[in-house]
Amino acid sequence: MPQWSNAHLMFCEGPHDAAFLNRVLKKQLGFQKLALKLSELPYPLANVLQASFKDRAAEDLRLDLARKFFLPDYVLALDSVLVLVFSYGGSNRKVSMLPFLENLFALLAVTNFSSLQQTAERPVYAYTVFADADARGESSTRDLISTEFATVGDSAWLTNAWMHIKTTKAASQSTDFGPAAAYVWRKSTEDGGTLEDLILECLDGDAELHKTLEYLDSRFDWSPPAGSTASQICASSAKRLKAAFCVEGQKQKPGGSLGVILDQSELLGTDKLKKSSAVQDCLAFLAEWVMPTPVEPAAATTQQRNSWPPKAEPQSS
Fold first, then answer.
1. CA distance 22 to 44
2. Exposed (0-12), middle (13-18) or buried (19+): which is 17, by Cβ within 10 Å?
3. Which of 53, 125, 146, 192 is 20–30 Å from 207 (CA)?
């Protein structure tokens, strides 16, 4: 069984966000896809997921709920670093993330392990929440994440004491359960937007995309209703771009969803990713954040385990 020095849990809004992250981790940072059994995951992650399956099976689960388990969309590794990418299924991330984190933190807080677990080495866990800036902006979105996850079960978790990671837009903080980071998708030159805006920057000047957008605008009315809020206007713009990107990927992946297209087609090659300074900022963050650290015994203190985050700078107001 592999010995992991670090286990990164990355949480994205939807399947296509997770697919984008999976692609850049593989194509730009050298990670490789893994097909692990639950038992091959590190403690206590394996225990949490196995317990979830047992509990749900005992409930005589309806067939239409069979896909409702909170499982990673992608599992990747590079050397001793393990990354699991989850999609939390929309803007209400608390509903899906909190039960999972509560179970994980409960086991991480336990210091008396079984004899097997006492001899095993446990990775340093780290957490990243990815979210769209939308119309709120970067800082307000990060504050919202802090508010939503101020507590997990009976334990305090995130605060507003974020520190920027070097010169990137990412911010991190130490917690009792491992370092946590927040990364907010936003336009390169505006404090707002979504991941779709970053993809649009990558495809800047693409004549075929321009034709597709022209056709979609002639075929459908993407205008938000009168009196729409800034958030609704932003959402309408993102829907239009999603439709266009899906069309662009149909030649290589007929019938494919946006997640499939972003992950498996050549819509976003290396040269195109370089066109967006926002994407390059995210890559700089990931390259820094997923650096491996020495494996520590399971009996290591909380202070020892959580002293890892990359050098950070005070968050500007």
1. 23
2. buried
3. 192
In angstroms, what CA-CA distances link 140 with 12, 158, 188, 317? 17, 15, 17, 11
The structural domains of the chain, with segments of one domain joined by +, span: 6-190+278-312, 196-275
> Taking the model in full, what pTM does it have?
0.89
